[in-house]
Amino acid sequence: MDKLNYTFQEIDSNESISSLAGIFDTIAENGRIEIPPDYGSGYIKKIKMDQDVVMRVWDFNIKRPLSFHKLAHRFIESEKYFHIGYLLNTESLGLTNDAFPKLMHLPHGMNIVFFSSDAEMNFEVERGTGLHAIDVSVSYSWLMNAFDEHDQKIRDFIKGLNEKPYPAMLLESSSPSEYRIISDIYTAVGSDLRSHLHIKAEVFLLIAEFFRKISSRSAQEVLESKVLYYDKIMMAESILKENLNSIFPGVDTIAKKVALSESTLKRYFKTVFNKSLNEYYLEIKMEYAKRLMLEKAITVNEVAAILNYEKVSSFIETFKKHHGYSPGHLKRKSA
Which end of the chain is more exposed for a tag (fewer CB within 10 A), N or C? Predict the structure, then answer.
């Protein structure tokens, strides 16, 4: 089934929402897109909360894969604006950008995606799933006016993000109180049970709490996607590939080589590859074993020896568990 694709610079204007509605062969009415039955169910709604503050609610299930490609953008050359996305379901959304080109899902426990408007981002929603989230875009000027001199640390942090020539990107976890507010906004917009003023107050509270939380870090930490440790995770993958003819090198050994703590390495490796280090190692090792048997005139025993298995039976068991058939069956079939 063909993938739905939407490329955009900004998604705050009525024109951008109308353009998004077009990929579903429908129109937006008062900022709301109803997903037609041929495409799925649910809705997308844009609400202007204030000058330079716009919220969108995403509450839909989709029958076709959907790809969003956000281009770098500024409304004002000297100012960035910032997106904060709060996800109620994280398993169906994948994301990439130039800094981490391999599609990844959010690490377990993380449900906030933050990035500046000068970042290029790709978001993928899998077929048969949906997106249940709210996101807020807010300008640099609005933030600097919202936080006064009593919040100088936050103002300095936001100013640092705006002045750096690099885009900002951060994955974060919501606190229990933040999650309750997110759920309340999400439910209120869908049911029209709360007033616009009530929703507006909660959105402003979310913005304030988010920037209070991340301003405790250095601005550099959220620049160039360093928080994802992508380069070091790629180094870890290379170490695994270098040890295919040996044994699993151990998480502690790999962590020392890439200069990460074991917990950080395990967490972000699974973010990038959606598998633990050991699971990924066994997968590529068994794929390597399959290639050896298909490309070389060697026996199952010889392959087991090349891969440093002390017992051939252990190799056969692992191979069969991974591929669904024994190495002997593969040799007979390819003969």
Answer: C
Tens digits of per-residue pLDDT, 277-334?
Answer: 999 999 999 999 999 988 888 899 999 999 999 999 999 999 999 999 998 888 787 6
Number of helices (H) and strands (E), helices first, in the chain? 12, 12
pLDDT tens, position by position, 181-203: 999 999 988 877 668 889 999 99
> Are 58 and 176 in a shared domain?
yes
Task: Scan for tokens 């029958």, then name that residue.
Answer: 63
For 122, how many CA atoms within 13 A lie in the half-sphere containing its CB? 14
Helix (H, G, I), strand (E, B) or coil at 244: coil
Split into its structural domains, the chain has a count of: 2
Shared-domain flag, residues 112 and 163? yes
- Residue whose tokens read 């990929």: 23
Determine if the pTM surpasses 0.85. Answer: no
Alpha-carbon distance of 144 to 146, in angstroms, equals 6
C-alpha 307/C-alpha 330 separation (Å) is 17
Domain hosting 118: range is 4-227
Do 137 and 75 sit in the same domain of this protein? Answer: yes
Q: Are residues 213 and 241 in the same domain?
A: no
Which residues touch 220 (CB under 8 Å, ≥6 apart)? 226
The runs of H, that is alpha helices, within 73-175 are 140-146, 152-163
Closest of 113, 200, 116 to residue 157, by C-alpha: 116
Residues 283 and 296 in one domain: yes
